[in-house]
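Listing S7. Sequence submitted for prediction.
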Amino acid sequence: MGDCTILSIALHKMPLTKAMIDTVTETTEAYAIRRIHRVVEKLNQRNSKFKRWELVRAACLGKKIEFLPAVEAALDDALASNARPN
């Protein structure tokens, strides 16, 4: 959400709304990890081996996102599972 929306200006007056929004929003990291898992699932359905750069590109990860610790861990896990024989 943009910082200049009416909702953000008056959000302090709506604690229940703020609490609900906080429960359903996800972090950028969580969204990137979810995209990684989705791409890995699709590639595994095709029995396709993939490299890190292909996974990063298919998951549309930017440089800032790619090197966050949790995202790097998800990428490493995905690559490790890809290296195992079926």
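Caption to Listing S7: primary sequence and predicted structure tokens for the chain studied. The CA atoms of residues 37 and 78 lie 8 Å apart. The longest helix spans residues 28-45.
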